[in-house]
Amino acid sequence: MADGTAAHALLAGQKPPKLSPRARSFYERLQFMYAEMDYTPLWLDEEGKPVVELRQVVPLSKSIKLVRVIDAFAKTKDGEAVLIDYKTTVWPWRLLFESKSATNPVPQSMGFQATAYLIPPNEPTPFAWPNRIDFLVASERGGLAVHTYRQSPEDMANLLDAIQVVHKAKLFPKHRGNGCAFCSYKEACFGTPGWEALYEKKGK
Question: Is residue 185 part of a domain?
Fold first, then answer.
């Protein structure tokens, strides 16, 4: 965790209090991916510097506020606006959907972060809020990978459902851990053997 935090600090142009060789390696690999994807900064501040590590509070309802920190904003080489989130991990991410027919692969480690970050803020921005987030993943025991997620019309409803489940349980559910016992979606969870047979796909 400390090495990942230090790598994030370097990417934000800050000097971390402690920098290990592992943290520097994470930083260099994430920086390499950013360059390889040919991103350019989407949002510049008054001094002409890219806006990074932006903390936002977004009301979802009268009683629910979303607090998030967005690592970076970028444009792709095709001019598409995109949110950037840097990830450091030991092992490569596994995908929930790995078939060639899947149009929106979802890494297990992503959870609801993509959904939560793609909700537009209340404050005005100098661009239309992106409907795409790219996770740049530097794994210590695996290669580099960029996972893209695009906003779905059902995302907000799914997120609010999950928030109600967590609020009722008074415990945040995890893929592994005590939280699973409190989750009302356990039968359809991809962490449960045979979940495919129990899952009812929403929409057409």
Answer: no
